[in-house]
Amino acid sequence: MRTPLVSAIAFALAGLSAAAVAAPVADNSQLATTQLxxxxxxxxxxxxxxxxxxxLTFDGKVSIAVDVLEPTASITLNAxxxxxxxxxxxxxxxxxxxxxxxxxxxxxxxxxxFTFDHAVPAGSYTLSMKYTGKIxxxxxxxxxxDYDTKSDGKKRALYTQFENSDARRFIPSWDEPAYKATFTLxxxxxxxxxxxxxxxxxxxxxxxNGLAEVTFQPSPKMSTYLLFFGLGEFDRATTKSDGVEIGxxxxxxxxxxxxFTLDSGKAVLQEYNAYFGVPYPLPKLDNIASPGQxxxxxxxxxxxxxxxxxxxxxxxxxxxTQSDKxxxxxxxxxxxxxxxFGDLVTMRWWDDLWLNEGFASWLASRTTQRLHPEWHTNLxxxxxxxxxxxxxxxxxxxxxxQHVETVEQASQAFDSITYAKGESVIRMLEAYVGADTWxxxxxxxxxxxxxxxxxxxxxxxxxxxxxxxxxSTVAHDFTLQPGIPLVRVESVSCANGSTTLKLSQGEFTRxxxxxxxxxxxxxxxxxxxxxxxxxxxxxxxxxxxxxDGCAPVVVNAGQTGYYRTLYKPEQVKALQGAFAKLEPIDQxxxxxxxxxxxxxxxxxxxxxxxxIKAVPLDASPVLWEEVAGDLxxxxxxxxxxxxxxxxxRKYAIARLEPKFAQVGWEAKAGEEVPVAIxxxxxxxxxSHLGDAKVIAEARRRYASNAMPAELxxxxxxxxxxxxxxxxWDKLHAEAKAExxxxxxxxxxxxxxxxxxxxxxxxxLELALTDEPGATNSAAMISAASHAHPALAFDFAxxxxxxxDHFVDSTSxxxxxxxxxxxxxxxxxxxxxKAFADKYIEPTSRRDAETSMANIxxxxxxxxxxxxxxxxxxxxxx
Length: 877
Known about the structure:
With 877 residues, the protein is an alpha+beta fold. It is 41% helix and 23% strand.
């Protein structure tokens, strides 16, 4: 084994701080929730693995340096799908070892317990064992991805995915975030393949017979879920940034498609080193591109070895779009932010997962806007907030800081509350205290807790100190309780060139109008159109605010606040009249509020159509995306009612056609970057609305192969959605023949999107075969659910034993209910409930309950809100 002293020396040689090793163990009162006994803690793992990729098994050996904190007759750690041999326990000092323990495996608890013939005294020991494990075909533990190549047949690569609780499939370990330790990994691999881990290789020894032994440098002190191992026929390209080697690793021949990620990583690392005030501490940072996909994540922040599916990292010149480019940048920026928020400083338990995900999302958005202002991604703050509020407005929501007890609950914590609400609350708090003050607090937090674990209050302590005021009071309101504040503008009066607002605070909910509202301290920013902003902290449920000028007033000016704003009818009319003069971010925010409040019955549902009518032709492309999205959403509420839907579609097409005529099918020299994204959105929306001209042109371009890369996905989507049997067969033949995984995966997903139910059934049957590839099958069923939720759900449930093999093992409680979540049929509620009662633990039914709540909400909207839309269309259509 490698002792802590030897490890500290190795870190110094590798340019790492010995503080990574020497941080003290917290006492029991400070420890997080745990599913393991507290009597033993690991400090270092020496791991050796021999993968057998052809057999989907591996052999392992591990020696774990442990501290026994109090006498115990047994040691329990996490393990799943493993068998053990030659288990020994040896004191750190001396050669005497204990008699071989009895081994008991608890599959349900995912633990292995080693029981000795007498109590082990407190002290330091080495626990060693041999073991065997399984290589999966979905992204859990150590898994295999099979993929096509253009010139060299099929290949198989191995990768690991451990978050949140799957390191136990690779190493018998204390697989919880608070049990940080150091790792030295050794692997016996084919000598012609590249092995990758968190740290650079320290040595590679030829073993003969086509095998080599690769030993990696010891890792910093980190949580088990951040360990990474990859193996395959890879290429690697590198650059340098602030003394750190940044790499991209791809399948052979594709590093050119990762050049944008490589260049972006260089700029982002410099940005983050400056922002955090603590330099990135590892000698290298790789981005590993993998074929395939998961239904639940696109990338993973393994320290020094970020794992990303190809669609979120590579830019294929034959199919990638501007939207893809922005997503690639944002994904890389998100995962790199985790190298500090999550890896260097880690939440103590999954309750505070948002400290990882909310902050990485916020920092990625901030960095994207800073480094690429031409993309106008600052306007996406509204859609991010809306994604959170859609989840936060129903009874099944939860606080940002949530209580997690089980592995499955931890898996479910990766949702829009953790990510999008976390990001939105951070944006609000940063605006409240000021960007410089916020950064000062973040830097103090990172410096104080590097290489250790935290809870949310550790952050608020530093922010309070930097701000000189109790920011934690506001932060606690928005992170420790669920829900959305509703700020009502009770009155507006103007005198002497100043407007006074009387405000009150309630709670916005979509499904509980009778609910007693919670209370928040709400930072409110408001201004008159064209005026300067003023702010107040709304407390005790009411307050007043004076703003300069006597024009119409925008509350939540700049849209940094996490709350809904409800205006009186005359105020809404005033904003409609001045809509073209609002800042684009406020146009988006006002429209989003009016939509949500209208659908919830707090104002006429038709008000959103008045705003859509007021959008000028030269408005921001992002606002026109919102217009297209709202019209498409209204259209879906009319599904099954052809006559009323036709009236909506006639108006929607007429509203969008002039903008599309301006944008056109072909890109124009000098156009704004967001126009490229709008072009695809308009084509997709108009085709969904049944615009015969757009559908015909998409078909013509497909038939003549006149598809520029920027529009190829969109055109294929239109053709697939409107496919007949002959077209479906042609797309199927193209999918089978395609050798580029990035394109192949897309084609198989499109096969499941036809509006024609008979073709959707063919796609579902195809999904159960080996043809699409192990990671495409679940995606095909999900794709079919968008147009046919009942069909897809019933099919998946009827074939559950097979479908389970296509879904990440800890995510089945989310996957099945989500298939039905888009339904407008109230009968689906009973189906989801029956499924949950039969297959999902009572403590893990949040996604099922949310799907049921959303179906009920949509049925309510159709029954109670659409009559107002019908009346508006009759008057204005």
